[in-house]
Amino acid sequence: MVSYYQPEIECASREKIRELQSERLVKTVRRVYSDVAYYRKLMDEKGVKPGDIQSVDDLSKLPFLKKDDLRDCYPYGLLAVPLSDVVRIQSTSGTTGKRVVAFYTQKDIDVWDECCARAIVAAGGDKNDVVHVSYGYGLFTGGPGLNGGSHKVGSMTLPMSSGNTERQIQFMCDLQSTILCCTPSYAAFLTETIINQGVSDQIKLKAGIFGAEAWSEEMRRDIEARLRVKAYDIYGLTEISGPGVSFECSEQTGMHVNEDSFIAETIDPDTGDVLPEGTKGELVFTCINKEAFPLLRYRTRDICVLSRKECSCGRTLIKMSRLMGRSDDMLIIRGVNVFPSQIETVLLNCGLTSNYQIIVDRVNHTDTFEVQVEMTPEMFSDTVKNISTREDELVTSMRAMLGISPKVTLVAPRSIARSEGKAVRVIDRRKI
Amino acid sequence: MAINQISIFVENSVGRLAEVTAVMGDAGIDMRAMCIADTADFGILRVIVSNPKRALEILRASECVVSVTQVLAISIPDTPGSLSRVIGILADAGVSVEYAYAFITRKKGNAYVIFRVEDNERAEEILARNGIETANESELYEL
Q1: Which CATH number fits domain A332-428: 3.30.300.30, 3.40.50.1820, 2.130.10.10, 3.30.750.24?
Q2: What is the pLDDT of residues A103-136, one digit of tens each?
Q3: Please, which residues have CB within 8 angstroms of residue B75's CB and are 6 or more apart in sequence?
Q4: How far is A373 from chain B (nearest CA, A)?
Q5: A111 burial class (0-12, 13-18, 19+ CB within 10 angstroms)?
Q6: Record: contact B39-A384, CB cut-off 8 A
Q7: Domain locations in chain B?
Q8: What chain A residue is nearest to B99 in terms of C-alpha separation?
Q9: Averaged over B10-36, what is the pLDDT?
Q10: Is the pLDDT of residue A151 over 70?
């Protein structure tokens, strides 16, 4: 039997969703135009007045917001409520080291939690389940999002956070976790460890909700077979709220967008033209149910296809496909956003030239992350100890900037491949 | 007297060491001594050469990353226990040796040890007090 967390929304008629979206969009646009100078400026520049937005059909009249706008507005420039109404922030990395900070009122948290609750119920969860959350907690939205969703569902929630695999597996066995929430690569690693420890028989997982990084259908089938779970994809981004912007149902053919909160469009990344449903393009979201940080037409840079084909699960919410790439140079490595420009910033801060190359691969379903740096006379020394110390400093600075540690490899000067005089900064060997 | 050692960064890839040594060989640079320190990713080739100034020029021109370090060269008898005696003297005086390498010469019965220490002057003083002289550059080049 199919269950829903909020069937009145999840299975609502197209007309009802449109009506709700139009009403919320008009209200949000009016509010941000009057309360947020930056939106007012953007809209004035484009010659759009709040009165021009009467329904969702007028959405394309609004200007786009980009990650650079978020950086320019850091920290409070896009905040749409008084600071006293904010109860939480979450944060993600920005393009040049300046982080993106997103704000939430209590109502925003409640809506976000409900979005995640829908995902958990769609994965077969209810109050009798034990939800094992191995996403990171803290500024990263993964842990807090699924944690909140699980509370809404009424499941017993294990706020495991990431890492400490031994303890993860021990709790999984002892407390009989039934739903695992983490990145797909960590799920693969846990699976591997469970099999190696020979404790598969003690694991009672039935479902996994795996997101925050791109993964392939092959990887899904592999985890499903070896961990003996049904694996569901989930999508989200801090700027828009966090995980649960869209979620997968039992059909496993894409993720239903929580359309009562987020309007999805796909655009041509070069021209900005809105593309018809079913065409591959850059995903753009408009938040219509948020108080503190309601981004309008935010360009995610994620490439996918939107589809309104009828779904066997009964949900009428539009579906987005698995992510097919990026329209910028951002990498997602082990669930963490990495911009090549951040590496460059660290190298320059350390007094090094910015001759580097990022090499990403996936070995046993886990991302490997290597930064090759060309050796310079300033960094060189006749003792291994001195060079290793500098290498360690680089890794530490990169970890501080990115939130994950690369392996730093020092290479000969001018050995990094340059095509047409321009160095190739990223080699991504992952086949997703 | 301290002498100049040239250290060269060698990326850990097939053929790189051959390239670096060929640069010196082609320029007629004669190596008196060499040693390689290696890690998983890279190596440091350290050499004592006949003409350090020229070697530096041509290595830099070939885009090698190089540095010059002052090291001590000590002549010792090529007999069991003589290296241990010198190191013992340094150790007793609290001088730690970063690295060392040795080579024997055509001159029968004699060997040289290269020492890299923190403070060359102090080490030299300690060795001199124990009757051990350090070799100068010309002595090494004329071997």
Answers
A1: 3.30.300.30
A2: 999 999 999 999 999 999 999 999 999 999 999 9
A3: B110, B111, B112, B133, B135, B139
A4: 11
A5: buried
A6: yes
A7: 3-68, 70-141
A8: A383
A9: 91
A10: yes
Cβ neighbourhood burial of A184 (10 Å; 0-12, 13-18, 19+): buried
* Residues A7-328, CATH architecture: 3-Layer(aba) Sandwich (3.40)
Label residue A151 exposed, middle or buried (CB < 10 Å: 0-12, 13-18, 19+): middle
The residue among A376 and A58 whose pLDDT is bigger is A58
Tokens (6 digits) for A31: 């509010």
Which candidate from B5, B41, B69 shows the least CB-CB separation from A410? B41
- CATH topology for B3-68? VC0802-like (3.30.2130)
* Residue reference for tokens 């690295």: B99
* Fold classification of B70-141 (topology level): VC0802-like (3.30.2130)
**What's the CA gap between A17 and B21, in Å, rounded?**
73
Residue in A382, A387, A409 closest to B116 by CB: A382
Domain ranges of chain A: 7-328, 332-428
Structure-block tokens of residue B84: 């241990």
Residues near B12 by Cβ (< 8 Å), separated by ≥ 6? B38, B39, B40, B41, B42, B43
Task: Report the distance separating Cα A70 and Cα A76, nearest Å.
Answer: 9
Quote the pTM value: 0.76
Q: Do B65 and A411 touch (CB under 8 A)?
A: no
Mean pLDDT, residues A312-317 taken together:
97
